[in-house]
Design a protein that fits this description.
about 270 residues; alpha/beta; Rossmann fold; 11 helices; 9 strands; transferase; S-adenosylmethionine-dependent methyltransferase activity; SAM-dependent_MTases_sf; Ubiquinone/menaquinone biosynthesis C-methylase UbiE
Length: about 270
């Protein structure tokens, strides 16, 4: 099965499409809800503080419009784009419920975006590159459509998080490393190594601005949670506060966090 077909199936209304939609529907109860709502909130706050109502904004891989709907509610125009028709249907339902009927929602492949060069001030791209077998063409497209001095906010799930928070997975990973049995993971929805992704992003010409880490934990034993969702959320917040208090959030957070979120700009070569 081609990765496009796998993504279409994965984000269909019959499978994970509804689950992704429901993640944003209420106050977080599960660790995953906490994780992805935190990612949404950081992104929305960053965009609001670095844009004006005149800014051109697009959410590439908008899902059920958690970011788009919040930006629209705060007087920002934002186009939502997704590969999955079912996710766009969820998006339309969310926007209709909040009376945001006229928002542009587009179905497209992020490896061939239907926009002219240098078009957007801000691009949001959360979690998308993990679902593309070869994400380099998508990075090229993001670079092409963003304006000089424009901002890219991009995230993915960190491959080191389950290794460091699950002793059994960590041991298995270490043994594979010793035996040289490690193989590159090209599966759809995979976790990624932040150093490799950062190198790939900067290869396209983007300049690094900032990084944030979201989701310290949860603690697991052979893939099974050790603590309740509520306690895992409390541990995450406590670890997050501690790392910030000792000024290690930026350095250690890159290794520990579940969601790795990076902010880049496209340099203005005309200056």
């Amino acid at each position: 099965m081609a990765w496009q077909d796998e993504v279409t199936s994965m984000f269909s209304g019959r499978k994970d499409g509804k689950l992704w939609n429901d993640l944003y529907r209420s106050n977080p109860v599960t660790f995953e809800e906490h994780l992805f709502q935190s990612r949404r909130d950081f992104t929305v706050n960053y965009v609001l503080s670095h844009s004006t109502p005149a800014s051109t904004i697009i959410d590439v891989g908008c899902g059920a419009a958690p970011v788009v709907s919040r930006l629209l509610a705060n007087d920002r125009d934002c186009i939502g784009l997704d590969y999955s028709f079912d996710m766009l249907r969820f998006s339309r339902d969310v926007l209709n419920q909040s009376q945001q009927h006229n928002t542009a929602l587009l179905q497209a492949d992020c490896q061939a975006l239907p926009f002219p060069d240098n078009h957007f001030d801000i691009i949001v791209c959360l979690g998308v590159i993990s679902y593309i077998q070869d994400y380099q063409p998508a990075l090229k497209e993001l670079y092409r459509i963003i304006k000089p001095d424009g901002t890219l906010i991009i995230s993915f799930r960190n491959t080191y998080n389950p290794v460091l928070f699950d002793p059994i997975i960590g041991l298995k990973t270490f043994v594979k490393w010793l035996l040289r049995k490690h193989e590159d993971d090209n599966s759809v929805g995979r976790f990624l190594k932040f150093k490799a992704v950062r190198s790939d992003i900067e290869r396209e010409g983007f300049e690094y601005l900032a990084h944030t880490s979201i989701g310290m934990g949860p603690f697991r034993w052979n893939g099974k949670p050790i603590f309740s969702h509520r306690r895992s959320i409390k541990f995450d917040r406590a670890i997050d506060r501690f790392l910030k208090s000792v000024h290690l959030h930026s350095s250690l957070g890159k290794w520990l966090s579940d969601v790795s979120l990076w902010i880049y700009r496209k340099p203005n070569n005309n200056l």
